Amino acid sequence: MKTQPIDAFAEGMTAEMRAAVHEGSKIGHEKRTKLLFDHYANPNRLRQLAGEIKQHVVENLDTYLPALESRLVANGVRVHWASTAESACEAVHGILKARGARRLVKAKTMVSEEIELEKYLSDRGIESLETDLGEFIVQLDHDRPSHIIKPIMHKNRRQIADLFERHGLGPYDDEPAVITQRARQFLRHKYLEADACVTGANFMVAETGRMVIVTNEGNSRFCLAGTPCHIALVGIEKIVPADRDLGLFLNLLARSGTAQQLTVYNEFILGPRGAGQPDGPEEVHVVFVDNGRSDVLASECRDILRCIRCGACLNVCPVYRQASGHAYRGPYSGPVGAVLSPLMLGERFAEKADLPKASSLCGACNEVCPVDIPIPDLLLRLRDKAFALGIRSPGTPPMGAWAVLASHPVAWRAAMAGGAILNYLPTKLVPVRALRAWESSRDLPEWRGGAFRSWFKRHAKAPASGPNDHG
Amino acid sequence: MHAPKRSPYSGKRVQLMATCLCDAFYDSTALATVEVLEYLGMEVEFPEGQTCCGQPAFNGGDWPSSRKVVRHTLEAFAGDLPIIVPSGSCAAMMFHGAPLAFEKEGDRDAVVALGNRTWELGDFIVNGLGVRSWPGYFDSTVAYHRSCHTRGTGTPEAVATLLRSISGLRLVELGEAEQCCGFGGTFSVTFPHISAAMGELKLDHVGLAMPDVLVSADMSCLMHLGGIAHRDGVPLKAIHFAELLMQALARLA
Lengths: 471, 253
Fold this sequence. Notes:
heterodimer; A: alpha/beta; Rossmann fold; six-stranded parallel beta sheet; 10 strands; 49% helix; B: alpha/beta; 2 domains; four-stranded parallel beta sheet; 12 helices; 8 strands; 11% strand; globular
């Protein structure tokens, strides 16, 4: 039986990986919910407000982007525009080449995953080292992140201890404190050896040109303090209008992402090191990356560009919990990835048109989203889009005949009566794929087609007969 | 979820949307719905031409087919009476899903109007009729599975209010209550592995809470969970809350 790629992936996962993903996402979700509702009388109102602000930004990017650019330039930041993944990589490479830089330290940035920066640079002789602990482990293991903020959610600490031992970072020890300490020892002097650093940005403030980067390990601060050149890779949707909005967004981001009141390290960067400032990069570059975002903006699903990459929708999603982020075949997974990834492909939408199908449309993602993105509606729109493009995914029952039946009451009633044959047939022999998929793990209840209609007719004739009238 | 805000109903007549699932499998649920409504003094009409709300094709991505069925439903439920449906999912299809599928259609207003008069049963009893307690007796432990398409609607609170008011009834919470049971309409057959795994997880929580009865506002969830439990040979008493309401009344007598 040909199945959906995500379902097949989930089926093939090891029990160890499934347990790690389930535990990690469940804990993340439960802590987040407790914290939000402990601290705010009406967190849903905050989510809606943040959603309105980001929607406003998304719909006015054409004015916010140039306004932000002129603030950045006035602040001494050099601005680059990249329409594709390749041109974003080229921009970074160009900056590094001009400085003769060979070694790079990186703080966590999903855009760099998206544009596959590490490979591009290593092909050109430039070494880039991940400094976020999770990303460092992913890099060491030649793996891929499976979660936008917890990249190693799919691994347990025994696997990490094994990995460290194999790479000569010390004898096997799966104590998280020891693992962290060893990574820190390895990384600490790398900051000083590096010629430049690459980071993402969580927010860009249009009013002031302020760039905000949050991390929990302080690795972004080491990157900025230890290297002379800072390159920030920024998706064009990362804007908030004014500094005053940061209070709302930083509170929601930390609570939704990691269930913290505030992320531990919050960098607010206005530009390169000024006269009299003891440290900080002498050169700051912002590379604005489109890479399909304009296609998203032009679509009916532009609301997804509100996303602040907190990962709350991944944590709560029952499909993500069963399938892990790797099932989504790209850096963005879970509900947000199921909307974003196919749309960012533009004309190659069909390659990931199966992703929006990987949802029971339960709506939990919308309920937790800090910017209130109506993700289920967007998944539905993409299913409609795929259907209109003639894309048929495996296992989806054809609906045309059903629609004819369901708009002709006489035929419908006949089908209701005829369905009773299911009570007598060995369903394994019925060549209807949907039935066989149902029966793969579930029994059907007894078919009682039309029984209610008969009862109601008798009941309507004798309305006073009461509860003894059950047919 | 766009759930319509509406005023209480002071009339007597209502239309019943029985749902295709009750038409095919769960006549007992549709029957209990009629009895609950009649007990509350309603005159229940059953438009004979009704078939399905159109959700299977809507969720499956075949919106043209879905619109065809919604247009039929529009015709079948002519008039302006409240439409009562013993399913949070079909109700949400009427007031949230269908308007989305009709965004660019000339007859969208009629579809929105249809949605605005469609109520899930529990929501109607509590928020439509203002009934806040149920006068029966039910000496059992009950778990209420909050079906996903009632998120953001009046249903979860309404059903919990009714259940809590029943004398003798002990309501227990399920762990990870926000998690979907795994049914999801066509999802259950296009992602059979994940769907079943989600169902097993829900059943694990039911096993931990050990209710005598599992109730829901949606038979689709219970069909899926019941189907897995039956296959696994695990006994599970799962009924629509309308049936519980009628059983509670009967035990009072």
